[in-house]
Amino acid sequence: MPLDQLVQNLESALSKVPLIDPHSHIDPLKPVSKSLDDILGYHYYTELAHSAGMPQTLLAPEADPRDRVREIVKFMDRYDNTAQYAWFIDIAHTFLGLPESETRVSASDADKLFDAAQKTFAQPDWEKQVFEKTRLEKIFLTNEFDDPLTGFDTAKYVPCLRTDTLVFHFDKPETRRRLEATTGTHVHDAASLRRALAKVFLRFTQNGAKACAISLPPTFHPAPFDDEHFYEQMQFHDYHDLASGIFWLIAELCRDFRLPFDLMIGVNRKVYPKGVYQGQDLFDQRTSLIQYRDLFNAFPEVTFPVSVLTSAQNQELMAYSWIFPNVLPNGHWWYSNTPPFIRKDLTERVTAVPKTKLIGYYSDAYKLEFVKPKYGMYRRILAGVLADEFVRPGVLSETDAVALGTRLLRDNVREVFKV
Amino acid sequence: MPLDQLVQNLESALSKVPLIDPHSHIDPLKPVSKSLDDILGYHYYTELAHSAGMPQTLLAPEADPRDRVREIVKFMDRYDNTAQYAWFIDIAHTFLGLPESETRVSASDADKLFDAAQKTFAQPDWEKQVFEKTRLEKIFLTNEFDDPLTGFDTAKYVPCLRTDTLVFHFDKPETRRRLEATTGTHVHDAASLRRALAKVFLRFTQNGAKACAISLPPTFHPAPFDDEHFYEQMQFHDYHDLASGIFWLIAELCRDFRLPFDLMIGVNRKVYPKGVYQGQDLFDQRTSLIQYRDLFNAFPEVTFPVSVLTSAQNQELMAYSWIFPNVLPNGHWWYSNTPPFIRKDLTERVTAVPKTKLIGYYSDAYKLEFVKPKYGMYRRILAGVLADEFVRPGVLSETDAVALGTRLLRDNVREVFKV
Amino acid sequence: MPLDQLVQNLESALSKVPLIDPHSHIDPLKPVSKSLDDILGYHYYTELAHSAGMPQTLLAPEADPRDRVREIVKFMDRYDNTAQYAWFIDIAHTFLGLPESETRVSASDADKLFDAAQKTFAQPDWEKQVFEKTRLEKIFLTNEFDDPLTGFDTAKYVPCLRTDTLVFHFDKPETRRRLEATTGTHVHDAASLRRALAKVFLRFTQNGAKACAISLPPTFHPAPFDDEHFYEQMQFHDYHDLASGIFWLIAELCRDFRLPFDLMIGVNRKVYPKGVYQGQDLFDQRTSLIQYRDLFNAFPEVTFPVSVLTSAQNQELMAYSWIFPNVLPNGHWWYSNTPPFIRKDLTERVTAVPKTKLIGYYSDAYKLEFVKPKYGMYRRILAGVLADEFVRPGVLSETDAVALGTRLLRDNVREVFKV
């Protein structure tokens, strides 16, 4: 039963657009998978297998990777309805030689796929092949403030300063030690903190960084602290409540260094502390962008690409982006990164927010092999939305719809992040 | 204008699956309707008629049933757009001899239908006929903790321990009196309370109970109380604030007796106190599953089939079910039990939560005649979602889609509740 | 690629229904546009252009109108994906002679359109032409409590008493001065306040007013104040916290004068204080109708047509309307007035709330030229929803679906507001 021809045409045209992926967790020194364990060790698979009943025994680092893969694949017949399973099938088709005619993977395929992966991923030009098969041009990284930014091509792997540790773990002596180590600045008051952070920004921008980013809990409320407040807190070695103030300083530096500041709003960490690695975080739907009102007003020069964790909050994101020139909707994040939520949120945005402000998608990938299936899912939905909202009602021609889609996929990333 | 052939095929295949309905309010001693008044006295009809302007005069118990039916039918031309009206038409077609060609009922049909019902429902094998026409195999009950569990076939009518009274009305002397009467235990501290509750669980499980259940207000936050706290409160005859602690004890017993614990979250009782019977409850959309974080973590051995009242909270339910092995999405409840919400919530769940965890639907019915139209509505939507998300995009064959649907309709109920 | 024939048939039939628009901001003495600046000065265009990067320089009142129009049109290629842009194209087609074959407007069209508007709008019968092309019969106004209600035909321009100023700005001496001026009553306690407000209601109802209305912030909680409380507050010249109490008095007068009370719930004023005129307000999605529980219970005789700002709250509105006889869902407001939200919210309402209670739409327009494109958007969506939910599944014939649509568009407005 073939899909609609119009949607197919649009999807096919959009699949030719070279990708600039504005958010990932790729390690530029180990960007591609070495084994199927790197693919299936991705938290989405360990989460779903565990949620469906898999014990965590084989997730231990010392377990045999082949055994782990077998276990995760064995449980697939319990979660083969999910979008994440569909990504894996796409990977198996594209990269592991699974014939297109085979649309499912079962326990008995584990070894064959493991071996195929082993062989395929060992090719010396594998990274290059993945870039080509994905039509990937550039991909943004997620760098700790003291990450080395050398030893890789920053034109392909674009550094991005992730600031969660600085903002939310500044009370840990280790964070302050690392900051002093990387900047040579001992932080004891607002001025020295500002100086240290500025050195971080300087190093990042000199090394091609194109964005600053942070993920934020539902209750977070940014607010400026005066220097005296910083001083007093630090004198008494009370670093706990500085998060809002440090966040504000970082926003100031985004302004001064002209970096967009990606906000990823809504995650509660460690809600299920015994969950699998990276599979412990959930959310409280009761969050509002109203908490960012002062921030958006105080920094008209800073572009804030905003991701929200819940689809119910998408209307706020749509409305704040429609009103504030410096607020932009950014991709479809985590628990909103499945087809029904993407379809809904994208439709709401693309009919109400200026098209030049819509950053369509990012992969959030840990390994390059995931960029293709994730963008593939997005493009299929984008094609459907363009067909339903613009082409079929006679608002846009097919050509113009592809141009609108290209804007979401690529043009806006280039313009917003200046890449 | 016929519906899509694919959707029709899927719906037709799904309609052959024998049903195990995991939540209802059926009285096993009076499971079927005796008159049309039993059908139209269902709170959905009295609510809608009242909401549309019907005075409550004829809803008084002493009013003539035929007059009451006339009145409710008379107002149907004000609410014949609703899903609930469509259930009634289905009942009239299936059980009351309304020709399929007649798709509406108006005031002038009231007497004819009343008489048809009178005759039809009087048949000695009516209960058996309804089971057969519905392809119903088993149906879960909602039992008060001191309900007798005898005099009916618990293989067909599966007992379920409803605990609202124990948790939320323990401050009423009558509740404590009833608990003592049914268990022979005088409750004066945590130990005796635990003992009394254990006796309730023992009696229920010995009589074939397969679930424990409770409905919870939006603000509820479960928390363990230590025994001393129970003791002190009870010494001072202060039973008001024990709800969270009693709830926790019940969760412990669900663990010990291996019963799934159905949570139905979000209802505010008596928001419209002058509303019709059972038509007084509404909600506050501002609720979050984060309130259940400690509970889900503390009881990994307890399965929690969770129903939420608002569709906006469905994303939380989807995400918590994706992460916590012991959290399962359960049906489409009350104000979310109409086609647009079912379609949305089902689509969100079926593309993200392991399929083995999806309890598709329950009827919530008070009389057996409602199981068929409600499941009929659900199956039509399920068929549409399977077509759109799986068959048309080439992810599943029709046969595999029917298998997935069957899993939601039946297999998971059997596995989760061990029936 | 033509739209579905069924949807086209329904839309065509619905487009013949004469409109009674139950909420607008039309000035009855200047109901139509004088220039294209009146059209494009509408806050939706200034907001979107500003959001997409347009500086506010030319929005100053002293700027040349033609320059302003050029500027707003120049930025259209950044927001030509929006529903608001589609309204403008509709206006250009219907009123400004843009050929139907041209579906886009670009910078180079600004002068041509400006001139066409100048000429067209100068026609002496322009107002009459707009009424005819729109099939508009009546339109409700938004009147300040001391607005003159003379000099226009109140059968066409229906007065509506807007009470935001009385409720939320009573602490301003200017408001109290204006109230005294228009009523001749010096307000110094509850009795005099009640008297003054009653005089306002009397004048409005004597001049054909058919509704009272107010917009409310997300946190608002109506509550009755006793007369002593009013007296004490006023004695100490503390008028700040009287909002809830004044609101309650107004509800009492709606009851006494038999006026429906339109509630427009959810707007936070001046979230972006440097935004364009009327483009500064946003919201906090965390609002609940539970705050109106006491109000809805206390005034069973008052009809409350309710608009909510967020689509996430639509389920509450649906449910409260299903339960409370005096609560009615009213139109699609502001940030929910784009196709995806209308489609979702309408579908949720029309399958669950008695059809006689559904007030389908209002234009919220500032100039009459906007009534047509806004209702046009609504009718297209309404036709699609009627097709998908009623005609295709065989629930209603085309004729009956048109009747249901007509009820939403017109009949209910007539019955609810008695016009």
TrEMBL record, chains A, B, C:
Domain of life: Bacteria
EC id: 5.3.1.12
Gene3D superfamilies documented for this protein: Metal-dependent hydrolases (3.20.20.140), uronate isomerase, domain 2, chain A (1.10.2020.10)
Keywords of this entry: Isomerase
InterPro entries attached to this UniProt entry: Metal_Hydrolase, Uronate_isomerase
Entry's Gene Ontology molecular function annotations: glucuronate isomerase activity
Name recorded for this polypeptide: Glucuronate isomerase
